[in-house]
Amino acid sequence: MLGSRSRWNAICHLLDGVFFFAALISFSVEQVIPKLIQDLSDLAILVGLVALVRGLGLFLPQILYAKKVEGLAYKKPTVLLCAVLQRVGWLGFLLSLYLRWDAAFTLPLFFVALAANGLGSGLIVPVWTDWYAKTVPERWWGTLLGVRRAVPAVLGVGLGKLIQQIMNARPAPERYRILLFLALIFYGLSLLFVALVREERTEGLPNQRRTPWRAYLSDLWQIMFRRRDFRLFMVASLLATLPVMVLLTFLTRYALTYPGVQDGIVGTFTMFYFGSMAVGSLVGGVLSDRRGTIAPFRVFPLFVMAAAALSVVSARPAVICAAWSLLGFAYGVRMVVMLPAVFRFAGPHRRPSYSAVSFTFLGLANAVIPPLLGLGIDIDVTGFPHAFLGCGVLAFAGWLFFLRMPSPERVVPEG
Can you tell me the distance from the alpha carbon of 327 to that of 272, in angstroms, rounded to the nearest whole number? Predict the structure, then answer.
């Protein structure tokens, strides 16, 4: 049973997650944003640049910020500050949509807003992950992450229907004003429940902020290379995660090439993707807490392989809906099990550093590869089906790695 403080925090974390992910669904990088870019330009590299700009902002600051986070006795004030930065860029972009709508004006401002969102996300990840682990009992880490992802994913089915209607009934840029305004309302409610979480004072590493940067960065490098089990885990995670990122980036863009497809198909994809993600999030969280951390990692690459295979076959809407469904389940599993896995490799004081190293390692590849693929597609070096075939091969390789990997519960954590 959970104590009163833990119950309160679990409810606040759940409602924060519900509204935060509802915001992500309303103006989703997977479905809505690719269509926004296509309305302004046919270049596939611009869709790939979304992954690059978002990824660099999201992952690079973590390395620099984790050092400070490990010395904080209270994490919530920093979480709130970074959360505001996450949201303010989108507010500016919404205002710009009332001024002009053309590629020369809108696209640069969109990427500035995306960079601000990515920077805020990158700063918040090390402190939020440690704050979450600190304010939620360990036995509930995976399950609560699964539930806070599954509930908004279920709501995503209804939001997908709403997106479908808005995309069919409203022209650009009006439809994007409506969806982004809705997302900002959800972001505000999320921020409210972040503020309501109760946090006790705990001492971090008092010497971390005084540690010279050279020594600290050397220590981060050693996290990756002195532990064979953690290094293999990260390589396997990269092989299984990179295909997910490529599919998330280009699947909607690929489907919009099908003759006669309507704009509202974006909402249909949202329903299939997030509906399946709800199931995947619950399955992943429960498997992680009850069957060992690595168990879900032996499941989700199989669904990535299936989604990639379907995408190679055809861009028909029915086929892509099935691919989005498989991908939603896979990503739902992956999202809720990555943090508990990293937590269990690290000790209580090293969680921010392990989190920063993990997500930076994965994020750099996930940020760089999509724009290169987009450029290759634009200059006819490769095509969407070939890129998706490569995704299936990488996911298979990652699955083989995870089959032979012991769970981190069997290793001694650091710290």
Answer: 9
Q: Is 414 helix (H, G, I), strand (E, B) or coil?
A: strand
- Dihedral sign, Cα of residue 256, residue 262, residue 267, residue 270: negative
Mean pLDDT of 322-334: 95
Task: Specify which residues 346 forms β-bridges with.
Answer: 414
Share of the chain above pLDDT 70, in %: 94
Rounded to whole angstroms, the Cα distance separating 58 from 55 reads 5
Mean pLDDT (the chain, rounded): 88
The tens digit of pLDDT for each residue in 108-119 reads 999 999 999 998
Taking every pair of Cα atoms in the chain, the longest distance, rounded to a whole number of angstroms, is: 62
pLDDT in tens, 369-415: 999 999 999 999 999 999 999 999 999 999 999 998 877 765 545 55
The whole-number pLDDT of residue 303 equals 98
Closest CA to 194 of 182, 186, 205, 204: 186
Question: Are 31 and 199 contacting, i.e. CB atoms less than 8 angstroms apart?
Answer: no
Angle at 325 between CA 321 and CA 328, to 5 degrees: 130
- B/e letters for 334-361, b = 16+ CB within 10 Å, e = fewer, are bbbbbbbbbbbbbeebbbbbbbbbbbbb
Q: Is residue 186 classed as helix, strand or coil in its secondary structure?
A: helix
User: What would the two tokens of residue 407 be?
Assistant: 């769970």
Query: What are the CA-CA distances from residue 237 to residues 7, 22, 45, 107, 408 (Å)?
Result: 32, 26, 25, 32, 14
Q: Which domains does the chain have, with CATH numbers?
A: 4-197+213-410 (1.20.1250.20)
Task: Enter the pTM of the model.
Answer: 0.88
How many Å apart are CA 54 and CA 42, to the nearest integer? 20
Give the C-alpha separation, 76 to 196, whole Å. 10
Q: What are phi and psi of 414, to 5 degrees?
A: -90, 150
Q: Which residue has the tokens 């996450």?
A: 86
Angle of CA points 74, 76, 77, to nearest 5°: 90
Do residues 123 and 82 touch, judged by C-beta distance below 8 A? yes
Q: Let me know how many helices (H) and strands (E) the chain has, helices first.
A: 14, 0
3-class DSSP state of 43: coil
The pLDDT value recorded for residue 226 is 74
